[in-house]
Amino acid sequence: MQTLKMEKVMIALDYDPTAQKVAEIGFALAAAMKAEVILVHVITDIKYYSSLAYSPIVGYTGMMALNQVKKDSIGSLIHASNHFLDTMKDHLGDKAIKTIVLEGDFAESIINTAKKQNADIIVMGSHSKKMLENILLGSVTEKVLHESDIPLFIVPTKKQ
Predict the structure, then answer these.
(1) Angle at the Cα of 41 (from 83 to 70), degrees rounded to 5?
(2) Predicted pLDDT at 135
C-alpha cells in the first residue's frame, strides 16, 4: 500500500481574532508533515468590512485595526490583507510561506485556489455564530466541507 504524502497545506484565514490560533495549528500540522504552507485571505463585498461587528485584524497586539483602513477602497483592503498575511507569516517565523489575497465569494475562492495551488489539505477555523447569522450568511466552513474534494482540517474556534 502506498502512503499518501501531504506536500501543501493551505490555511484560509479571516480577520477574526481566532485567526492566529488557526494559523498556528495549521502551521504545526504542515511542519509535522514537512509540507509547504500557503496562507490565504479572501476579500468579499466591501460593505462586509464596514460592519461595526467586524473584528480587528487578528487578535494580538501590533496588528492594525480595520478602522485604520479606508474601507471604501478595494485597493486599501488588498493592502491591509497583504499586511495581515505578511504579519502572520512573520509571526509563524517561516519566510518560505506563500501568501495569497483573493477577491470573491469566500468558499468558492478557497476551493478554487486550493485546486489551483494543488493543496493536499485546507485548514480553516469554524466560528461559533448565532443561529440567525448562520441562516442569513451561511457557514463558509460548512460550504467548503460540502463542496470541496480536498480534505479539510477544521480548527474549532468557539469562544469559551
Answers:
(1) 55
(2) 45
3-state SS class at 48: helix
User: In angstroms, rounded to a whole number, what is the distance separating the alpha carbons of residues 2 and 7?
Assistant: 15
The predicted model gives 91-116 an average pLDDT of: 95
Tell me the average pLDDT across 29-57.
76
Q: Are 119 and 150 in contact (CB under 8 A)?
A: yes
Mean pLDDT of the region 57-63: 41
- C-alpha cell recorded at residue 91: 509571526
Q: Which residues have a Cβ under 8 Å from the Cβ of 157 and sit 6 or more positions away?
A: 16, 18, 21, 22, 125, 126, 127, 128
b/e sequence 57-95, b meaning 16+ C-beta within 10 Å: bbeeeebeebeebebeeeeebeebbeebbebbbebbeee
Q: Strand pairing partners for 38? A: 10, 98
Amino acid at 83: H
The predicted model scores a pTM of 0.81
